[in-house]
Design goal:
Elements lengths: L1 E2 L9 H27 L3 H5 L37 H14 L15 H6 L5 H4 L27 H4 L27 H6 L43 E2 L1 H9 L1 H4 L4 H5 L14 H5 L3 H7 L6 H4 L36 H5 L1 H6 L3 H5 L4 H11 L10 H5 L2 E4 L2 E4 L11 H6 L7 H9 L3 H4 L11 H21 L1
Parallel strand pairs: 1-2
Antiparallel strand pairs: 3-4
This protein binds heme C (10 copies).
């Protein structure tokens, strides 16, 4: 490795030759693109067959028709009859299982539920989640009228006086019930957290445990310094690059240049361009979770990475064509997690919620933590809510699927807010109509009754049991 200043500004014959080569290859690429369009099932041609816009959950992979439609029907265009339920389960099965799905298909195998299935075929995802029908699509890809719980739960009002008079399109309102994920809303869970204060006494996040969470079984390595860098002789780098690396957790944990770039005698050759797979050798959980959310779903589908220019959400123009890969938040050789947690996000995101963040109490807490005046774990960054720290079997790690805690947002109550707030306050805050636009910088005005109702239900049941026992 030779350490020199970059030679970018030098004008030489070599530079002219490379410019010519660049033009030649650009022309070759354009020609190849059009040839490909003629002979292959090019995605742009397929979009012409789309009957309507794809949901906001899937718009990024819309061009990949075969992700959901069976490609087996030769050259026929995709249709409603070739959609594979298997495909839905391949991508979502694990998540729904992990979310303890309240209405899994298996629940309806029981013959006593036959009449319910006749009313609504709940074993088929497509009964409730169709595609390309924007005018019928509600929040979270639901394409049924919102009062559909009625088909199967008509007896609720009779069995539960507390529910009398409630409309069926209100069952699934924020903080009450979800169809799939009710982990923060089970009656027992609600009652267990009854009466908690708005702010818990030890309001703090767990600390990360990156080394324990590595995919490498046992990590034992000596810390490295500038002089230890092991890039091959012919690699030209700036002193800043090596300095950045030497200051990071990677050098401190013994991860040398070739650990990421290859180039050691027995391993693959050195490469300047890295992909998520190069990080995956050590950070499997982060790479896997990144690929199931909106940031990484295109990479997972084998498409070029997502860029802000393709987004439906408002984004800053300056970053329109930046690729969403690991470097989008962990740039250069610094891999600075504080930069990644707020500043990186705000280079791209420009919606009202993101822009409101800096004025919140949470943001002040985060600034205090970063400056050292607040205790570690007491700040709330964008990443605190969207890339939550989870307790895994190998230690606390960062879930890089920023959608996992978003749909439904009660997931966030359990995984994030309850580190610091009582459940009642968290549900109220998440259900507050102003919450999203103020980025949770306002005191919630609405009250969700769930916690109180669950508590009353258990208290009544207990007192009934007691009277029975007394008789
Ligand atoms: C994320 C999954 C997904 C992707 C990707 C996808 N579709 Fe679909 N498509 C569906 C679903 C679900 C339906 C509805 C099936 C039903 O109604 O039973 C559907 C229905 C259709 C229909 C029939 C509509 C009707 O009203 O009969 C056509 C045509 C279609 N898709 C074309 C396409 C084309 C072309 C592409 C690629 C450019 C594509 N789809 C990509 C999931 C997908
Ligand atoms: C190639 C993988 C893949 C396939 C196939 C797929 N999905 Fe998805 N789906 C995703 C990703 C990634 C997201 C966005 C992240 C998220 O919301 O969790 C998503 C989002 C969703 C959402 C939330 C939508 C929203 O607007 O918030 C629903 C509902 C959903 N998918 C249902 C389905 C159903 C039903 C099928 C089968 C027709 C299906 N998915 C097929 C990957 C897939
Ligand atoms: C009876 C209607 C119904 C059926 C059947 C159904 N869903 Fe859903 N799904 C919903 C509703 C309603 C939501 C909105 C969030 C909620 O209430 O859980 C949702 C949300 C989702 C989400 C995003 C939120 C989350 O909890 O992850 C995914 C992904 C999803 N469904 C996938 C599927 C798949 C895959 C199937 C088939 C195995 C399926 N759904 C079958 C009604 C249904
Ligand atoms: C296709 C029929 C069907 C639909 C539609 C349906 N459910 Fe259910 N639900 C069931 C079945 C079956 C059970 C199992 C318990 C039982 O037999 O009541 C159940 C159980 C439940 C439970 C208790 C879960 C537990 O494990 O403690 C709740 C709460 C619930 N449903 C709410 C809803 C809500 C809210 C909706 C609408 C968003 C809905 N259900 C839609 C069939 C359905
Ligand atoms: C933790 C992984 C990691 C380590 C360790 C690492 N790099 Fe990199 N390096 C990267 C990533 C990521 C990129 C950006 C790749 C891209 O843009 O596709 C990169 C880019 C480069 C480039 C390409 C051009 C540039 O200046 O950005 C060079 C040269 C380079 N690294 C040299 C080194 C040297 C020398 C070391 C050791 C002192 C080192 N790297 C250590 C991950 C690493
Ligand atoms: C050879 C194994 C290895 C590879 C490859 C690797 N890392 Fe790491 N990484 C580590 C170790 C070990 C740590 C833990 C350092 C610590 O906390 O002591 C770490 C820590 C990190 C951190 C946390 C830094 C901090 O300050 O807490 C980030 C972010 C990170 N890696 C990103 C990446 C990215 C992005 C890539 C791919 C470009 C990558 N890593 C490739 C081993 C690796
Ligand atoms: C949207 C921004 C973003 C992207 C993209 C991103 N990260 Fe991170 N990453 C973060 C933030 C923020 C943290 C620190 C979170 C914290 O401290 O709680 C982090 C922490 C980490 C850590 C250390 C914490 C841990 O989980 O042990 C590793 C390792 C890591 N990232 C690897 C990766 C890899 C590999 C990729 C690419 C697949 C990637 N990151 C893509 C934002 C991002
Ligand atoms: C390089 C630009 C870029 C960076 C950096 C970035 N994002 Fe994103 N983010 C996007 C794009 C593009 C989407 C997809 C939007 C779409 O599909 O319409 C997205 C989607 C999301 C979503 C899902 C929104 C939804 O409705 O499904 C969340 C949440 C999110 N980002 C949060 C963050 C956070 C938090 C950070 C920092 C830790 C961050 N992003 C960093 C570009 C970026
Ligand atoms: C206290 C937790 C919290 C913090 C801090 C937070 N968010 Fe969010 N964010 C949420 C919740 C909850 C939602 C879902 C709101 C809804 O749909 O009702 C959300 C939604 C989003 C969305 C989707 C917006 C849309 O219009 O659909 C993006 C993008 C996003 N957040 C990015 C960010 C960024 C970037 C930051 C930091 C600048 C940030 N968030 C800070 C909790 C938070
Ligand atoms: C690391 C701890 C921590 C986490 C995690 C956290 N908060 Fe907070 N939050 C606080 C503190 C501390 C305050 C200030 C309380 C006070 O001043 O009484 C606060 C204040 C608030 C406020 C009042 C805002 C204001 O400016 O007065 C709302 C609303 C709120 N949090 C919602 C949430 C939601 C929703 C979540 C989860 C998505 C969450 N918080 C996660 C620590 C946290």
């Amino acid at each position: 490795m030779s350490v020199t200043e970059p030679a970018a500004k030098r004008f030489t014959k070599a530079a002219w030759t490379s410019k010519w080569l660049w033009w030649a290859s650009l022309n070759a690429c354009i020609a190849a693109y059009f040839t490909y369009g003629l002979v292959a099932p090019a995605s742009n041609i397929k979009t012409a067959w789309l009957p309507g816009k794809t949901t906001h959950g899937h718009h990024q992979i819309e061009m990949d028709c075969d992700a959901c439609h069976a490609p087996s029907q030769g050259n026929a265009p995709p249709s409603a009859s070739d959609v594979m339920q298997d495909a839905c389960i391949r991508c979502h099965g694990d998540q729904l299982k992990a979310a303890n799905d309240t209405h899994p298909a298996s629940k309806f195998n029981d013959p006593t539920n036959a009449d319910r299935l006749a009313a609504l075929d709940a074993q088929n995802c497509l009964t409730c989640h169709q595609e390309h029908v924007p005018d019928r699509t509600l929040n979270m890809g639901l394409t049924l009228p919102a009062d559909y719980c009625w088909h199967c739960h008509q007896e609720v009002a009779e069995n539960r006086p507390s529910h009398a008079g409630m409309a069926y399109d209100s069952c699934a309102t924020a903080g009450c019930h979800n169809y799939h994920d009710n982990r923060a809303l089970y009656e027992k869970f609600l009652d267990d957290h009854f009466g908690e204060p708005d702010l818990l006494p030890d309001a703090k996040l767990p600390l990360r445990d990156t080394v324990a969470a590595l995919s490498v079984a046992k990590w034992q390595a000596e810390p490295l310094q500038v002089g230890d860098a092991d890039a091959p002789e012919d690699i030209v780098v700036s002193p800043e690059l090596v300095g950045d690396w030497a200051e990071t957790a990677h050098a401190a944990a013994g991860v040398n240049c070739t650990g990421c770039h290859g180039g050691q005698a027995e391993a693959a050759a050195w490469s300047d361009k890295l992909s998520v797979a190069d990080c995956e050798t050590c950070h499997e959980q982060q790479v896997d979770s990144f690929q199931t959310g909106k940031h990484g779903m295109r990479i997972a589908a084998g498409l070029p990475p997502m860029t802000p220019s393709l987004a439906l959400l408002p984004m800053h123009a300056g970053t329109a064509h930046e690729s969403l890969d690991c470097n989008a938040c962990h740039p250069g050789h610094r891999f600075d997690t504080e930069f990644a947690a707020v500043d990186a996000c705000l280079r791209c995101h420009a919606d009202s919620h993101s822009l409101a963040y800096r004025d919140t109490t949470h943001a002040s807490l985060w600034e205090e933590e970063v400056s050292g005046s607040g205790e570690r774990g007491t700040g709330v960054s964008c990443a605190t809510c969207h890339l939550p720290r989870l307790e895994g079997n190998r230690g606390v790690w960062v879930n890089h699927d920023q959608n996992a805690s978003l749909r439904p947002s009660e997931t966030m109550a359990r995984e994030v807010c309850m580190n610091c707030h009582g459940l009642d306050f968290a549900l109220n805050a998440l259900a507050d109509p102003l919450g999203k636009t103020t980025c949770y910088g306002n005191t919630p005005e609405r009250r969700v009754e769930s916690v109180q109702m669950a508590h009353d239900w258990f208290t009544q049941r207990q007192s009934k049991r007691r009277t029975k026992a007394d008789q």
